[in-house]
Each structure stands twice: as C-alpha cells, then as structure tokens.
Amino acid sequence: MIIIRQKKRNRKLEKLLTHTNEKLERLQIHFGRFTPKEVIEHLTDSDSAYQPSIRIVTVLFADLRGFTKMCDQMDPSTVVGILNGYFRCMSKVVSKHHGQVTELIGDGILTLFGALRNNPWQVQDAVMAALEMRKELKEYNIELQSKSLPELSFGIGIHKGQVLAGVMGNYELSKFGVVGDTINVAARVETLTREHNTDILITDKIMAELDDRFVLKKMPPVMVKGKPEPIITYSLEGIQKK
Amino acid sequence: MTVLLHEIEWSEPTLSVVHDAKWEAEVKADIGMVPDIHTRTSRSPWLRKTILKWPRYEAQEFPRRLADISGLVAAQENACRYCYGVARSWMHLWGYSKKMISNIERNAQIAEMDEKERAFIRFCRNLARSNPKPPKNDRDELLRLGYSQLAVTEMAFLIVNHCFVNRVSTFIAIPPMEELERLPNSIVGKLLRPIIGRKLRSIGWTETAPLEGVPKSFSRLIQKLIGLPAAVAMNNALTGAFESDILSKKLKILMFAVVANSLECDFCQTETHAMAVECGFNNEEFDHALSTLSSPYLSMHEEKLLSWTRDTIHFQNGPMQQQVRELAQEVGESMMLEAIGVASLANATVRLAVLLG
Predict the structure, then answer these.
(1) In this structure, are B337 and B262 located in the same domain?
(2) Same domain for B189 and B281?
(3) Is A37 in Cβ contact with B1 (below 8 Å)?
(4) Are residues B185 and B137 part of one domain?
(5) Cys-Cys with A144: which of A107, A149, B18, B272 at CB 3.0–4.6 Å?
(6) Per-residue pLDDT reduced to its tens digit, B187-242
(7) In sequence order, what are the residues at sequence separation of 6 or more whose Cβ sits closer than 8 angstroms to the Cβ of residue A153?
(8) Which residues contact B214 (CB under 8 A, 6 or more apart)?
(9) Which residues pair with A168 in a beta bridge?
(10) Interface contact flag, B288 A38, Cβ < 8 Å
(11) Least CB–CB distance from B131: residue in A17, A117, A211
C-alpha cells in the first residue's frame, strides 16, 4: 500500500517537474526577446551572477531622420508598422554580420560588435553591416513607396572603444546594458551625418583598422559637446570588389 | 541553452551521397553496415577515415561509463540531432536506464552521482559548449578529484573528438538514424538488448600503431597526447587534412588561425603563424589575411570559405545548414565537404589546445 502511494506521489511529482520545465523553457524563449541569448545562457546555466566586464567593442548607432515629424502627421499604427518593418530589416543585417542589437531607443538602434564574445573582426563587421543596412533601407523604401508610404532615411555613426558591459538596475527592474564614452561618441558622430550631408560616418579609430578595399572620404574636423579635441570622421562611400 | 532531442532544428542534408564501392566495402567489413554519414563524406579520403574511426574511440585511462556519457552530453550541447539520437540509442542498448539517460539530458538529479562523475559531466558540458571558451579550472578540478593527468588529457581528447563529429554531422545535416533510434523500444530491441549491446561494443576502435617521427602539424599539441592512442589519431587526422589537395594549404592554415584567434588560443596562434611563414606568407601578408579574411593567395571561393569558418565556432543549426547549402552550390560539394572537415578539425584542435596548451 505504501509503495503504491509512493509511486503515485512520484508520478505526480514527475508531472509537476515536466510542467515546470516546459514553463521554464517558454520563459527562456520570451526572455530571449529582451536580453541577448548569451546573457540568458549565462544566467540560467551558471551559479554566479553575470559579472560586469570592461570590453573593447565597436558601436554602431543608427538613427532615422525626420521620424518624429512623421509621427505627428501619421496614424500611430501606421507609424509603428513602418518602424517595426525597419527594425526587422536592420536587425537581420546586424545579426548576419555578428553584431547584437543592444537597445532600441525610440527610432534609434544601438548595436554592438564584440560585446558578448571575442570578435577580432568587429570593426570590419560593423562597417560591412552599415553598408548592407544602406542597401537594405533602399529596398525597404521601395516597399514603402509601393504602399504609398513615406520613405525613410537614416544616419549611422561608428566608433570603437571601451565600454562597461553588465546587467544593470535594481532587484525589481534590471537589464543587460553597456555604458561608456564610446557610446556617446558613436551617437555624436551619427548626428554629424546631417552636418556633413552623408549617411554613414566612421571615426579615425575605425578608419585605422580598415584595409584599402573600403572607399572613404575625409570630412573636416568638428568640435562636439563633451570633447576637448575636434572629431575627425570619414564618410563611408562603399567597398571595392576583388 | 541545452536542448532535448525533439527540440533540435534539423534540415534536409546539405551535401549529396556519393557511392564508392571500395570504400563502402571497407566500412562494411569494419562495422558491419554502411550508415549514411559514410557515403556523404566518401569524397574526402582523410575525412571519411576520421569519421569512421573517431566516434568509436575507446578510452584507455578512465571508466567506460564516463566515456559513454561524454558522447551523449557533447551531442546534446552541440545540438547535433544525428549524434544525439545515435548516442542515446547506444546508451539504451548498452543497458543504461531510461531514467539515468533522462537525468543526464535534463542535467537533473545528477546529485545522485558521485562527485567525480558530476565534475566530469560539468567538464564535458563546458568543453563541448561553443561559448565561452573551455575553462581550465574544470580540468584542474578533475585532477584535484584524483584523475590522473593522462586520464584528463584523454577525456579532453574524447570530448573534442565528439565535437568534431558533431560539427561534421550538423554541417552536412546527416539524416537521423531513425531505425536505430526506434530499436531500444522495439520488442526485438528489448529481447536482444544484451546481444546488440555486446555487438556494438565489439566495433569499438583503438589505435595500436605507435606515433612515428615528429608530427608535421601542431607537433607540440600532439606531444601532449603521447601515451594515449589519441596521439596517433589526432596526428593522422591533422596530417590527412593538411596533405589533402582539395583546398590550398594556405587556406587551411588561415582557417585554423581564424578559429585560434576567435577562441584567443595563444598556443594555436603561435603554431599557425609559424606554419603560415613556412608555407610562404610573410608576417605582413599573414596579418593582413587574418584581419581582413582576404588574401591575394586565395581565390574568391576560398575567401568565402575562410569567412564561413568564423561561423563554425558559434552557430545555430538552421541558418548554418542553409549557409552550407548555398555555399556548396557556389564552391562545389567537394570543396565544401573538405572545408567542413577542416573547420571541424580546427575547432576540435583549438579547443584541445586551449586546455592542454
């Protein structure tokens, strides 16, 4: 009698365990939409918390031009539809080139290369991603045009340097993120695209790591907020085929 | 994230079957049958031999039970649908209980195992995992628990050996052996399990030939395996891969260097640099090739294979199999198969060197 009862209890416990496992797996999938997969793996597979670390990364910051104005003039669901389509296209390109979209800030995309694992080709990856984002935006604009929707245009700034990467926040609300001056510089360089009338600008740190396949145009140095020295940037024109 | 058998994404094979009567007769004489994997790898003499022998490697220095577990854990960590199915069926047929297999798969209740077994499973998972790079402290833990240096070295070899086979099978998307997977639950399987289990054990392979002369590639790494059959096994695979003329030697060296750089393996970075210089690169040319993944020495197809090598370190099955399929159409199946073998061997070699180097 005791054995039968114990067996019943075991079966119940096994069912409960399977159910809990399934729930956990579903949670991991949903969680994956908010936090990079590598961070989730670390948090679920190890006993320790995600250790913050200083890393050398390449930052690509992309921002849509005139989108705020568009928001005021159009139906909100149409705006969200356009924006989601844009994010989908750009994220696909970023993943293909080994980058991680770390944050969506309004209509801006903050992408990191080399933040979660070692990537000796991070500069080349970021530049190649930017070139393909340009191409992808052209194609997305054709799609928008065919639906009589306004076309989009963006500016991209790319810079390389140190950041602090880690899970930040408090017990109730925290997220994986990066902080550091490198992010600010990439964002400032992006704003310079309007001034220089171009779409992709890279800093001299990025230029120094590129080979002669990349076609670049030097821009005049510009003083930016928070920097004692003027920033030298290069407009990324394209790539020469072998 | 560790996945279970039914959750693994798997596509149709990326490379076709190529029948070679002489080779198939050799395989049949050796293991009694010709599974699909041996016909899809038959174009490459060194690769087909390695694929025939490595999965049957018999560990000499540590318990067979752990060696059996390592095949299952590595296949699961690498999400290789083909190897996972085979390892799981073999374990059933060797007499391991369903409960034990399920506990290992779910990494649950392994607290019931002793400390040495738990440490081994942890070592196995971490070494097989694609990210982060293999931690040396897991190896030190095994030494602390009383395994000999030679046993830990052989454990590391066996795990990277599984990783090699997992990668080759995944990149080709070898069809799962459904008949074998059904066997443990069938009446025949249940009745004849001990006989089938013994038969499976009898196809185990160990290298008996001694290592002769100084190894031509990764000599210092192979020296670390001396005393184990693994030394000859590793040397034969590396020699075969580098002597094969389907891909240029320069490309193969660069493929190894790409993996070494990604996994930050100083040992292999030094080794590949020396090999590159010996092969005709000057320092500047090699550094340029490595940083841009292009070189005047490489054809356009070879540059594509070099870029693809990067993706063989961390990958997801679906996109990877699609990429292999598209690349194979571009460069041809022979070149693609050879690149699959070289990239998989590079991943195995560098992982081993990170631990032993």
Answers:
(1) yes
(2) no
(3) yes
(4) yes
(5) A149
(6) 999 999 999 999 999 988 888 888 888 888 999 999 999 999 999 999 999 999 99
(7) A64, A65, A66, A137, A199
(8) none
(9) A175
(10) no
(11) A117
State how far the Cα of B190 lies from the Cα of A129, in Å rounded to an integer: 55
Give the integer Cα–Cα distance in Å for B25 and B225: 32
pTM of the model: 0.86
DSSP state of B7: G
- The amino acid that residue A1 corresponds to is M
Quick one: B191 and B146 in the same domain?
yes
ipTM above 0.95, yes or no: no
- Cis ω for the linkage preceding B132 (within 30 of 0): yes
Nearest chain A residue to B301 by CA: give it.
Answer: A242
Question: Is B1 an interface residue toward A (CB < 8 Å)?
Answer: yes
Tell me how far apart the alpha carbons of residues B302 and B294 are, in angstroms, rounded to a whole number.
9
Cα separation, B80 vs B3, in Å, equals 10
Q: Which domain holds residue B335?
A: 219-356
Which domains are seen in chain A, by residue range? 49-239 (3.30.70.1230)
B237 and B185 within one domain: no
Same domain, B325 and B259: yes
Residue B126 sits at the chain A interface (C-beta within 8 Å): no
Are the C-beta atoms of B77 and B105 separated by less than 8 Å? no
Residue B326 and residue B283 in one domain: yes
Domain-terminating residue out of B171, B202, B233: B202
Interface contact flag, A120 B292, Cβ < 8 Å: no
Tens digit of pLDDT for each residue in A41-57? 656 655 555 678 899 99
Number of domains in chain B: 2
In CATH, what number is assigned to the domain containing residue B62?
1.20.1290.10
The torsion angle over the Cα atoms of residues B26, B337, B297 and B287, rounded to 10 degrees, is -110
Residues A200, A184: Cα–Cα separation, whole Å: 16
Asked if the structure places residue B24 within a domain, the reply is no
Which residues of chain A make contact with B131, given a CB cutoff of 8 A? Answer: 38, 41, 117
Q: How distant, in Å, are the alpha carbons of A94, A158, A234, B297 from that of A183?
A: 17, 9, 18, 38
Flag whether B22 is in a domain: no
Q: Any idea what DSSP says for residue A54?
A: E
**Per residue in A70-108, pLDDT tens?**
888 888 899 999 999 999 999 999 999 999 998 888 899
Residue with tokens 């699909």: B36
Backbone angles phi, psi at B181, to 5 degrees: -65, -30
Interface check for B111 against chain A (CB to CB < 8 A): the answer is no
Please name the residues in contact with A73: beta carbons below 8 A apart, sequence gap of 6 or more: none
Query: Which residue in A has a C-alpha nearest to residue B107's C-alpha?
Result: A45
Give me the residue from B1, B131, B292 closest to A124, CB to CB.
Answer: B292
Tokens 């063989």: give the residue: B312
Question: Which residues from chain B sit within 8 angstroms of residue A121, using beta carbons?
Answer: 291, 293, 310
- Give the best residue of A42, A121, A206, A241 to mutate against chain B (max B CB count within 10 A): A121
Supply the DSSP string of B164-221, one letter for each residue.
Answer: HHHHHHHHHTPPP-HHHHHGGGSHHHHHHHHHHHHHHHHT-B---SPP-S--SSSHHH
Instruction: Judge: B292–A211 Cβ closer than 8 Å, yes or no.
Output: yes
Please indicate if any CB of chain A lies within 8 Å of the CB of B326. no
Residue whose entry in the numeric block shows the structure tokens 């100083």: B266
Chain A residue with minimal CA distance to B291?
Answer: A121
